[in-house]
Amino acid sequence: MSRLTCLNRACVFAGLAWLMTGAAAVQGAGRDALQGTEPATRPGTGRTVWDGMYTKPQAERGRTEYMQACASCHADDLRGKGTAPGLVGEDFAFQWDDRSVGDLFLRTRTLMPSDRPNSLPARTYSDIVAFILQSNKFPAGEEELGADVDFLRQALITAKRPEP
Fold first, then answer.
1. CATH top-level class for 34-157?
2. Beta bridge partner(s), residue 100
3. Of the N and C termini of the chain, which has fewer Cβ atoms inside 10 Å?
4. What does the domain layout of the chain look like in residue ranges?
5. 99-100 and 155-157 as β-strands: parallel, antiparallel, unpaired?
6. What φ, ψ does residue 100 adopt, rounded to 5°?
7. Using one digit for the tens of pLDDT, what is the confidence trace for 134-143?
8. Which tens digit of pLDDT belongs to each residue from 86-99?
9. Cα distances (angstroms) measured from residue 22 to each of 70, 96, 155
10. Residue 163 has what pLDDT?
11. Helix, strand or coil, per DSSP, at residue 157
12. C-alpha angle 91/162/49, rounded to 5°?
């Protein structure tokens, strides 16, 4: 077999593996399709989205950016369309409950927009995540959501407000 044929086959297999990993992550078929997206915190340890992780102005910026970069696949109302998952309500809770805000940020930055992943500034991804949190009725806080994944992994997404 010629070197060119071997190289072509290797490229095809690498492309298929990449597509399968991305499709599983986007469709939620494999909650941990990306390495390093294991929940970094457990309930009762650290912050949660109920502590106010973003500001209202940040979520408003995120809404504008979402409409430009995300709504064509995930819909204006964040309910998803086609193969793009919903980002609110039960769809969001099923995919993200007991996962960290860092995992959500990292998955969004790494895979979205699907035709040009990691193409937006980190602040834009933070703003979009803030809009997603606001759309899921998590309260705003006094500080903007940042882009430090290690810090964001210390904050857990919990569908239900933790008891005091």
1. mainly alpha
2. 156
3. C
4. 34-157
5. antiparallel
6. -95, 160
7. 999 999 999 9
8. 999 999 999 999 99
9. 16, 17, 25
10. 81
11. strand
12. 55
